[in-house]
């Protein structure tokens, strides 16, 4: 894509952040040298989504190669220069970092039949709704049992900095649910919920202020007062 890229990675070890930092950092250095520039190339942290392999991974594979088509950048998935589709479909040799065996193995044990099945599978996805409508909390893609089990696993490790906020708070209540009409009618209760939304559920102070129609400084004062009371 013209402003981001997609990677489908299996991580046996919990080192995704280190790997992405290395990948983006080295690429930025090379890019800057070639174009005689300095500074950052990528904006913000990468976004990671955990995927249930046996039920959703194949659909994600299709989504990635169809992304340029759905964005109307190209007409066919094989037309996108940086796509893995030509190699996976058997139309060119794969890059050493590209793994095709699992994907093609979903269609046939015979390489030629598998590549044909893969091409048909991808083409059938053109024009269909994307799978991302099923993503839970912008962080997990899978069946309910998988999602619920993973939420409990993450909840026990929510203080680990390496876990993105979107995953640490994947099952948090919405601001609408936190600030019910009853809460909004009582300033004391509202202020307690402001602190709870920020400290317990990870909402940014700016988000809370915008939702409640308050000044950011007012929310900031509530948080400072709450912290002072907690230390007493």
Question: Mind explaining what this structure looks like?
Answer:
The structure is a single chain. With 232 residues, this protein is mainly alpha-helical. Among the domains are: 47-132, no CATH class; 174-232, Arc Repressor Mutant, subunit A, CATH 1.10.10. The protein is 53% helix and 2% strand. The chain has 12 helices and 2 strands, in the order αβααααβααααααα. It has helices spanning 16-35, 53-70, 85-88, 101-105, 111-124, 144-155, 165-168, 175-178, 181-184, 187-199, 205-212, 216-231, and strands at residues 50-51, 140-141. A two-stranded parallel ribbon has the order 1-2. The protein is elongated, with a radius of gyration of 23 Å. The protein starts with 15 loop residues before the first helix and ends with a helix. 14% of the residues are buried. The mean pLDDT is 86.
Helix-strand pattern? HEHHHHEHHHHHHH
Distance between the termini: 53 Å
Nearest-angstrom radius of gyration?
Answer: 23 Å
Number of helices: 12
Strand content: under 5%
CA-based shape: elongated
Give start-end ranges of low-pLDDT stretches: none
Short account of what is shown:
The protein is mainly α and 232 residues long. The chain has helices at 16-35, 53-70, 85-88, 101-105, 111-124, 144-155, 165-168, 175-178, 181-184, 187-199, 205-212, 216-231, and strands spanning 50-51, 140-141. Helix content is 53%, strand content 2%.
